[in-house]
Design goal:
With 342 residues, this protein is of the alpha/beta class. It is 44% helix and 19% strand. Helix 2 (44-65) runs parallel beside helix 3, helix 7 packs antiparallel against helix 8 and helix 8 runs parallel beside helix 9 (271-283). Bound molecules: 5'-O-[(R)-(carboxyoxy)(hydroxy)phosphoryl]adenosine (KG4) and zinc ion. 5'-O-[(R)-(carboxyoxy)(hydroxy)phosphoryl]adenosine binds at residues 10, 136-138, 163, 166-167, 178-181, 184, 265-267, 269-270, 297-298.
Amino acid sequence: MLILGIESSCDETGIGLYDTQAGLLSEALHSQVALHEAYGGVVPELASRDHIRRIIPLVRKTLQDGNRSLQDLDAVAYTAGPGLAGALLVGASVAESLALALGIPVVGVHHLEGHLLSPLLGENPPEFPFVALLVSGGHTQFMAVRAVGDYELLGETVDDAAGEAFDKTAQLLGLPYPGGPALSRLAEGGNPERFALPRPMLQSGDLHMSFSGLKTAVSLLVKSRGNDAHADIAASFEAAVADVLSQKALQALESTGMDRLVVAGGVGANRRLRETLSHRLGRRGARVAFPPLRLCTDNGAMIAYAGACRLGRHPQAARQPGRFTIHPRWNLQEYAQAIAPR
Ligand code: KG4
Ligand code: ZN
């Protein structure tokens, strides 16, 4: 089965072509970073317009690179939510129209399911069951993943997502958008032990987390110290986030009796987080899997793959194209249960 995947939930237009026999054939991505940079964040209307401009040429390029034509497709998968409404509508309309014209089914994929399954696209894919740590710009969650579609939320942030904390802290340090990668570059030359930043909720006894206090602590530090401390502040900030996520990850493995952690989402690209998790979990005999860097942030390959998993395991997820809704806010567990009630 050959599946085209379309991602347009935020500021990346991503297309992927996945063959259930041969694996990922090709992918193409356009990032809107340069477009939104001047505004210090994603401007939804500009994002939608840019998706419209990019999406068809990217679909053409992906098919060409994969040596396939539209007629070879068996299904189209697209991100149906959560995300920016206008941006989601672009991917949804293109996917639905394509499928309608080709007479093939569509499947609306949950963006987080795409992230969650993306490590399975890498080399040496992890086996089920595992604990997933989803760390993106909008989410920070621990999930018990027992199979495709079988997701149990174990705990999540009660306020800011880790990626959001990276972006806001970067802004306080005067770094350009998107903040996460810029902050981690600055942190490379800093001393992570110079400032003891707060690690809230470590003793909460559950798997919930809080990251909004960190930016307040950083804001106070920035005011009281000169510019020379910025690299140390960035490194200390990263160390605090990596520390909280690693300690909670250990608790998540302990409480589920699992020995495997899979990290997904944009913050999973962070080097210090990768090192801290590998080191601390390795010491306890647990394994950590990270998706390849290019699959950590938003991309079309993970949507094509999630669509393929869905269709393979729950053929009822396939729909005839034509009538569709997008879900700017969407709970992953509700989505999973609607397709395959337990
Ligand atoms: O998964 P993603 O591409 O989009 C969402 O679905 O949110 O994640 C984007 C988030 C942003 O907050 C970005 O700053 C963060 O991931 N990010 C990073 C790094 N690369 C991206 N955070 C820390 N270190 C990085 N290297
Ligand atoms: Zn994402």
